[in-house]
Amino acid sequence: MLEKQAIRLASRVPSVFHSLRYSSIGLPQEKVEPSFIPTDSNLHRIEPMSKHPMELFKAWYGDHVQLNPNNLMANVLSLSTATKSGRVSNRTLILRRLDEDGFVIMTDGRSKKSAELAENPFAAMSFLWLCMKGQACLSRQVRIEGKVEALDESNWIDIYEKEPLFCKIRAHICNQGREVEWRDLKNHHDQLLKEVEEGNRELEKPAHVVAYKLHPDMIEFYESFGLTIGDRLLYRKQDDNSWRVSRIAA
Predict the structure, then answer these.
(1) C-alpha 145: how far from chain center
(2) Beta-sheet strands, E only, within 109-230
(3) Of 43, 60, 140, 161, which sees the most CB atoms within 10 A?
(4) pLDDT, tens digit, for every residue of 175-218?
């Protein structure tokens, strides 16, 4: 019974990631050619230099999806938060939505990251995308820094509603980061799953499930292709909300 449940739940994961890539991130459905341009030098150059970093992020994200159609990693990011005293912690999360003004994530409001964001609302994200293009590796990294805002539920409830069943069950039974007895957790899981499958339970969003948006004031792009010296573009937000872009050494 448990084995069948695991297989059924696991089989849904790729489709969930695919919907995130296109419906939430807002990328075109048609196939696109990768936007990077190899040079005849060992010194790589990022072209074109977009005026707005979000446009370049979307282009690179789209490239990675097209070059890795079965890869589940395009949405994966590393999030660093810090206490007010400066102690830093880091973890891996999923990008839930890309807005014109920021990057949306969802988590447990009782978690360590939420406690640190309450103390210090500034955070950093990074994406790493690696794929083979011919015989060479295309390596891209995007670093993002900025202030994090807690979102009203009405702004993102659709993200929770699209979650697969096992994720909704996790939200109900797991108090993120707290000690737990595995057998108790399993019994809670099995009972809740039974109630749902028998139609006796609706898994509405728990109050502790929250979402945040990181509003970037700095976005840095790194790219290399094969055995080349990488290139970097640094975007900094200006007081008038425009972006200043400069090329910096790798």
Answers:
(1) 14
(2) 122-133, 136-150, 209-225
(3) 60
(4) 999 999 999 999 999 999 999 999 899 999 999 999 999 999 99
Beta strands in 10-121 (DSSP E): 76-82, 88-94, 97-99, 102-108
Q: Please tell me the pTM assigned to this model.
A: 0.83
- Residue 20 burial by Cβ neighbours in a 10 Å radius (0-12, 13-18, 19+): buried
E runs forming strands in the chain: 76-82, 88-94, 97-99, 102-108, 122-133, 136-150, 209-225, 231-237, 243-248
Which is nearest to 86 in space by CA: 129, 64, 37, 119? Answer: 119
* C-alpha to C-alpha distances, 20 to 23, 24, 68, 160, 230, nearest whole angstrom: 6, 5, 15, 12, 29
Please report, as a single letter, which amino acid is at residue 114: S
Measured in degrees and rounded to the nearest 5, phi and psi for residue 61 equal -60, -45
Which pair of structure tokens corresponds to residue 243? 């972006």
